[in-house]
């Protein structure tokens, strides 16, 4: 190996070290503090959205990333406004968080970008699960199945976060409560529908694009996507470990023990998001070992 090659290898290794330290730092902060809706947690949410945008730009190009961002915001704001005004498709609810922020209709402006952040990393995980289906959307099977799988991956995230945010943190309020610790089943059906609409629009757009298969270098991107996806759920382990106690009352007047909600949230996390992320990581590992 020539001295120039040695220098380039050393520089690449240093860049990788900086990248992984940056990712680890963001994830550690998010896992440690995002469960509590403080200004710091809100700042971490902005960082999360920025990371999703940067990841999408690297994976698909800036133009495609911007189109996904715009499409996700347009669809999510439309569906959220429809939901708060009519109860369809999520159920009857309203947001308590972001009262001082600008609104798009009845919805705080931060909601759409958060849909994008969670949605984009869910799309990344689903793409890995389906062996890089996002780069093979000329196949009708992938065009149909990838948005469906991504919608379920996305809704798993909501299944983890919704109950503690609606009952303990009261970020949003379900007017009639619901059987899943104060959250109605209609909410999750609404998430499936809204997520599918977003992902189907994006898939139809990407089908027109000439996306190249992943290279060895770009395999870092799906790994980071998997980590950001599961990291958004792991934050709920922290308050459970802290042993929070007390009672949370939903809008119907039903009381729920805080510790029970926290423990149920961790159980759901382990059997949904964590398992899905593990499957994606194993699929990615198998793909790399076959090269």
Automatic annotation (TrEMBL):
Keyword list, A-Z: Membrane, Transmembrane, Transmembrane helix
Protein name: Carotenoid biosynthesis protein
UniProt keyword annotation of Nuclease present: no
Annotated TM spans: 18-35, 41-60, 67-93, 105-129, 141-157, 188-206, 218-242, 264-285
Pfam families: Caroten_synth
Transmembrane keyword on record: yes
Domain of life assignment: Bacteria
PANTHER family: SLL0814 PROTEIN (PTHR39419:SF1)
